[in-house]
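Narrative of activities, Objective 1.

The group set out to show that a structural description can be obtained from nothing but a protein's sequence at a throughput compatible with the screening campaign. Below is one input-output pair from the validation batch, recorded exactly as produced.
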Amino acid sequence: MVFSSVLFLFRFLPIFMICYFLVPRKMKNLVLFLGSLVFYAWGEPVYIFLMLFSTISDYVWGRLIEEYRGKDRSRIFLLCSIVINLFILGFFKYADFLMQTVNTVFGTSIPLLKLPLPIGISFYTFQTMSYVIDVYRGDTKAQRNILQFGVYVTMFPQLIAGPILKYHQVERYLQDRRTDLDAISYGVKRFVTGLAKKVLLANNLGLLWKQVTELGNEQMSILMAWLGIAAFALQIYFDFSGYSDMAIGLGAVLGFHFPENFNYPYIAASVKDFWHRWHISLSTWFKEYVYIPLGGNRKGLPRQLFNILVVWMLTGIWHGAGWNFALWGLYFGAFLSAEKLIGRKWKERSFKIADISANNDSNGGNRENMFLTCVRNIIEHGYVLLVVLFSFVIFRVEGVREIKEQFLGLSGCYGNAMTPMAAYEIKSCLILLLIACAGATPFPAMWVQRLKNANMWKKSGWLLQSCYILTGLVLATAFLLGSSVHPFLYFRF
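Output recorded for this entry:
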């Protein structure tokens, strides 16, 4: 079951919300837990037992770790929990990939298991691992109420695609939470915004990307290649950020406060800044539970660069079972390492130039300083966009040969800059691309904030919000009824 489906919007969600708000406060966790199980089991009834096993297992390990805190047994229990979690994740996600690699390298014929990947296993596994590790560190107390812990693991708003929640972020909400009209209003608006991102933008951008990928090399002009990769970059952003918006919105309606997972990543001024804005919960997880334990930046620059490469190779593998994902992770690790080595010197030099300009006469100096700042910003943002767009080439395709073909297309090796096909596609999707590009920046949110500050908002703000919610819901529903369901891209991760 997906959020962007008629089944969820008009069957599951209304029934669940009625049950949730009618029961007494003490029973809300039970309703949320059972509702989450139904939500997850709708598509994969068998794998619900796997999720329940992970829940019970880490609940027990957490209790044991706290009981024997400070003793050797505590470390053994932590190790057992991590090994079990990684084994389950590795078996279902990477077993076939490893056997296929062995078959290719050694010429063997080991039969593949061909097991379907349990939806959301990477997300809820990381959640339970973070809980056990935090209990071991003493950063949080072990949960003694298994129902509350079960809600933390299985909560359907963020179960299958994040954001990845650390236990301390929702602990108090599991014990007691309240909702009011303001929270519900905010949650509904946030959910509709995410739904519109997914259905109206991501799905249509996905169709554009599909059209480009279906073209042969003889039809692939440089403009079509760049149009395709730009469409995919915008699609995956609106797809994933849209899901996060819906998860945060549903959480607000239920009385939870989920952390933000996206912060306009395409306006980043560096690759490091990009990953502070994209999938924030995953970046934070790897930083806290892998990078820092490896030594972080405390053991010298060479060790720090090594730690960065290790973390980002693991980040790539987390996204999928394929060598392209490992290469994708190392790709970002290399750029982050390069920024670590030369970024500071570059910024220092830029600021020195700006300071020299500022010391000139006031008018001319200011103009020159503004010009240099503008040039520097263009270079920085352009560099990040190129790095990210090229990364999606590695991320999206499956083989080295396909990666090579994609880069050849981007370099114009397969055709002219403008073809009749390219001209037609650009004209037909120009409005969509302009809306998507604008939506990936903070400007729409700034305009809305200005509108809220106007006197008109005080008088008729409720009417404008109601119209926004109704319009977004009607348009999204119309598109859902008129097209096939497009699952979230991150389901496979």
